[in-house]
Amino acid sequence: MHIKCSKEILKSLDDAITVVTVFEDENVSTMFDKLNIVSKNFSAKENNIEIVTLLENDNLVDLCLVGLGKKESLDKEKLRIIGGNLCKKIKGVFRNKVCKNNDINIINVNLDIEQIGAFSEGILLGNYKFDKYKTKSEAFEEREIDNIIIFTEKEAEYEIEKAKILSNSTIIARDLVNEPSNIIYPKTLAIEAVRLGAEYGFNVEIYEEEKIKALGMEAFFAVSRGSVNKPRFIVMRYFGDEENTDILGLVGKGLTYDTGGYSLKSNASMLDMKTDMAGAASVIGAMCAISHSKLKKNVIAVVAACENALSGGSYKPGDIINSMARKTIEVLNTDAEGRLTLADAIYYIINNEKVTKVVDVATLTGAALTLLGNVATPVVTNNEDFYCELEKASTLSGERVWKMPLYDEFKNMVKGEEADLKNTGGKNAGCITAGAFIGEFVGSTPWIHMDIAGTSTSSKSKGYKSKGATGEPVRTLYYLAEI
Asked: Among the options 76, 237, 339, 422, which is catalytic?
């Protein structure tokens, strides 16, 4: 689907879907003679969307009236949600209508330029649906949208173009997460990263098993041992300002499937474990957006991709393993595997790639879901100034974050008895102690840990989010690089 803006008013609208946005108490004046009469009976409350049909010049014209609510209370996130709901409404109502084209014409858009960008994002993301493996029935096939034409000022073109880039990159992440684990596993995830790097303009280097061992990534390798699908370490580099020594590092958890290993999950808990690589997908999507936008920044992202499977070669509860940082770890639970892969990945990116700030993104704990549900991402950090940058980026993206405390008591909960560390701090404060464990491999580098176990997927379609992967926090990572 394409989106563009135009200032011209169409002479004929009978071959497309026409959307009219309406604020509460607004007098609507358009080229439609009867619209003012219709709109007087329309409640323009926020998110109210209604379809009306008018006879104009012997043509039946379908109009979609969209309520924006009160102008003073409208923000960009509300506009994204409205845009997503609008797209879903159009696709549902017009499923079987015969039109000359599949365009949406949006008129009466009296929003500011940034709001138009957010509205466009919502529409583009609301159009997403992962159904590539379903046999299509023409009788019930959902209407696809080809173009969105927004009649607005030319100055909005930049924001609309950014909306396209961010939406597309978010959809890249959604697709990667929604793919089943027999399609996306370490090797194929690496292949996708290489393909996307070639398409969007960032460099990709893949380390296979021997290189991973040579680097001393023993914690990462231990997790991978039980699977016939061998691990891959994916390094993505983008240098938009080579004279600058500042480099933002992004680390994504890349468990393409997690059985729990010997600490075996239940069948119900395993059903959606293809999504355990959502952190990896989000940093790949962010790299696409950053590179496509040609940001004047330097960003390096890494993914330690593997499967946590069960076999005679799997690591076991009670094992003591080493790490790239030469810190030893007691394995108390093989289902606390993500933090082991992240420990080596984050140590590598700081010490080998020399990043000056680093963010790790992971579907790490069920405690994150218990803590904040699907509403916000809990964050652990060692640097308040860096967190303020993330909070600003989150405000721009609409993807909420919330900072957890990192007291010394939490750090002490992951200290080992027979080794330096243990890979779980027990049943209490699980979201924080998981972050504290990763923090042991960071040193003094400004660092942020984002636990997206709750926000990376949605159980139902709502607004601009669809059931399944959400693509969070691709847009937040982009803005963090941009600011």
From this structure: 339
